[in-house]
Amino acid sequence: MKVPLTDLRAQYLTIRAEIDPAIQNVIDTSQFVLGAAVSAFEQAFAAAHGVQHCIGVGSGTDALHLALWAQGVGPGDSVVTTPFTFIATAEMISLAGAKPVFVDIDPRTLTMDASRLADLLSSQDRKGGIKAVIPVHLYGCPADMDGILALAGEYRVPVIEDACQAHLARFNGKPVGSFGSAACFSFYPAKNLGAYGEAGAITTQDDALDAKIRQLRDHGQSAKYVHDVPGHNYRMDGIQGAVLGVKMKYLSGWTTRRREIARLYRSRLGGIEELTLPFESPRLEQVYHQFVIRTKVRAGLEKHLSSKGISTALHYPIPLHLQQAYAGLGYKRGDFPVSEMAAEQCISLPLYPEMTGEQIDYVVSAVQQFFR
Known about the structure:
It is built from 11 helices and 14 strands. The strands form 5 sheets. It has a 4-stranded mixed beta sheet with strand order 1-9-8-5, with helices on both faces. The longest helix is centred in the C-terminal third of the chain and has 32 residues.
């Protein structure tokens, strides 16, 4: 049996009757950039995450840069995030002209460790230079927003949520994307809510920030050909808005199914001592963008599952502080031991809403067989 990590075609076939006309409508009306489909999606996504505003943009990477740019982060500033995330989180700090500053992750959730953030913010040599904190809701698991927001408030530093993998996730019953001054989402095709190409969004409760981001994403315009500030082209395509608008109607059900599959994995793999399964608690409503397990024998497990036709992935095998791109920051191996452990041990198993019971059984059986 072949089991892919995700199956985008299987999803498309379940909603084809709605997707195709939605795309055709954009073509018929020639609203290829922004337009009615994008506006309708923005409103639906904002409502689903309990916020006033959603601004559709070209990608999750665009969203991260815009959120920093609109809040005045620039050269000479520092922005705190974790080294265990996709590089776009740190790249956009660099693009804004600022310096990424890393703090290690919690060994249970693999998200920003609030106690480490406290140590960093209280250190004398860091005071005054930090202009934002970006916690990452990694793999669909919310970060400790209570602890992070308390510290950010004490030090008067805005929080920008990297929610690119966490559509509809909740912390203490409240949707991610509604905690910080702004939050950034990705709709890369393989995400829980995926476009048919690149797309992203920013959510915020701040009316003024919403207006500023909308202006910056459209070449700094306040009206057609009236440019108040230098901006950029970070607009969402109309076709992506149409696709996402259709998919929004199914996202809640797909999320429920992801959690059901995760529950099956957890119940059947929980007795294997060599595995660490994703952390859960009443405070964290995960959405399982990835089902990530940890094991010290990852290479062997990866090879075994591949031989059985089961696709896996390593998210992420090299932490950012050890990437050549950030060698200039001066970090070294051992500076962030939890991130380094996760990079060496994490492996993602197949999980997508269209997975069949037979496929789930096959993956579970193959993992059990390896450890036997």
